[in-house]
Amino acid sequence: MTKLTKSIILGVVITLAGCATAPKKIYHWDNYQTTVYHYYQSGKTSPDEQIAALNASLEKSRASAKKVPPGVHAHLGLLYANTGRTDLAFQEFNHEKALFPESAPFMDLLLSKNKGETK
Amino acid sequence: MNRLLVFISLVFTLALTGCAKPIPRDYTGFKQSKPRSILVLPPVSQSLDVNASHSMLSQMTLPLAEAGYYVLPVAVVEETFKQHGMTTPQDIRAVSVAKLHQIFGADTVLYVDVTDYGTKYIVVSSETRVTATARLVDLRTGKQLWSGGATASSNEQDSNNSSLLGMLVSAAINQVANNLMDKGHDIAGMTSARMLTAGVPGGILYGPYSPSYGKDKI
């Protein structure tokens, strides 16, 4: 069993080493896609845990040289809106818009909504 | 023994022909359109696995954004549809291109179909496979710019372990691991990356946020 585990680990290492020359990523992805997936899986993690995960990830992006991926601020805004924190939600929608002008029409639509209507 | 040789060479031939066949595509429309943003709609899934659509949906932002596009926040988009009374991927699929453009202001929309998602148990192995196809349509003109598809399987990684005992043991481990670790979601990530990566034959073109924008060799 330990032998098998060892050989599996070795296999994984070799496989990954083969990929080491992959092109550099533009964005600091961290947990964004996982957090989005958890959003759909009821009971996996709470909205507050998802908010904390995204905020931690944003902190890490600031520390690294890589940019925040498209959608992170908007998704964080959605989580804030769902938990009744409209001010913070709007702040995040504005942040998304500032980082990515392409998001402006959609973000403006969300910002024009009345309190709590994002859900 | 002879049979084995024939089988091995057959496998090699298949593997090699799989590599050697780039499908020639017409990128004229794509190049003229110069899209900056992509609206990814929740995939329509033919799988019985209720997770399939959302699992795939949450794995598609990375490859598209790394290809250089702005990808609209997938969950926020879906919530917006829900507010308008559209709750299933089929409902959302039926919305007109003009309406999508009006609501989201995106340049393009990506329609995705998940045709296979999940784990099958076969005598000496269990396989998790995810297959999907996608169409990129210009929201300003309604024209299709690109289409593609991909499949990924857990067996691609397992095939190194070839002894019979090894196979039996890893099959048993896999059946447990596939459920515990949500392998379908991991494989969906591979399918998504394979289908939506720029700079490969048959793939999408690079978008404006990529350092390779406008330098596509296809």
Folded structure, characterized:
The complex is a heterodimer of chains A (119) and B (218). Chain A is an all-alpha fold and 119 residues long. Chain A has 6 helices and no strands. The longest helix of chain A is centred in the N-terminal third of the chain and has 17 residues, at 2-18. The radius of gyration of chain A is 18 Å and the shape is globular. With 218 residues, chain B is of the alpha/beta class. In chain B, a hairpin with a 2-residue loop joins β4 (108-122) and β5 (125-138). The longest helix of chain B has 18 residues, at 2-19. The N and C termini of chain B lie far apart (44 Å).
Low-confidence stretches of chain B: none
How far apart, in Å, are the first and last alpha carbons of chain A? Answer: 49 Å
The fraction of residues in strands of chain B falls at 15-25%
Mean pLDDT of chain B: 86
Structural descriptors:
heterodimer; A: 119 residues; mainly alpha; 6 helices; 64% helix; globular; disordered C terminus; B: 218 residues; alpha/beta; six-stranded mixed beta sheet; 10 helices; 43% helix
Give a topology summary.
The complex is a heterodimer of chains A (119) and B (218).
Chain A: H1 2-18, H2 32-40, H3 47-63, H4 72-82, H5 86-99, H6 104-111
Helix pairs in contact in A: 2-3, 3-4, 4-5, 5-6
Chain B: H1 2-19, H2 28-33, E1 37-40, E2 44-45, H3 52-57, H4 61-66, E3 70-71, H5 74-83, H6 89-93, H7 97-104, E4 108-122, E5 125-138, E6 144-153, H8 155-158, H9 164-180, H10 183-196
Parallel strand pairs in B: 1-3, 1-4, 2-4
Antiparallel strand pairs in B: 4-5, 5-6
